[in-house]
Amino acid sequence: MTSPAVSSRDLPHPAREEIRLEGVLHALSDPMRLRIVRELAAVSDELSCSHFDLPVTKSTTTHHFRVLRESGVIRQIYRGTAKMNGLRRDDLDGLFPGLLDALLDAAARQAVRLGST
């Protein structure tokens, strides 16, 4: 039986000390997941899942968010009926200084080079 303080809508996230570099790199190796992270980094705030207009099915979108959450890249929390997503920048910067900024910069340069956004 679960504790009454834990909602059935709470989503599991790795603790900061459980986040692994290979998991983060795997999560960010997919173009759709990198796109999600770039959008979250650009707004420095939480965005709902419905905000993202990805050219994949809803089930695939759900999979991408789960990979990002389980790797420790994002935090997901329910606010009412919306599932809100936030970048775990403080945790990632604390564990892997400069990594997120370097990856986001490289992704932005690639987008310019390939003529996409």
TrEMBL record:
Domain HTH arsR-type intervals: 13-107
Pfam families the record matches: HTH_20
Name under which the protein is recorded: ArsR family transcriptional regulator
Keywords, alphabetical: DNA-binding, Transcription, Transcription regulation
TM segment ranges: none
CDD domains: HTH_ARSR
Alphabetized SUPFAM superfamilies for the sequence: Winged helix' DNA-binding domain
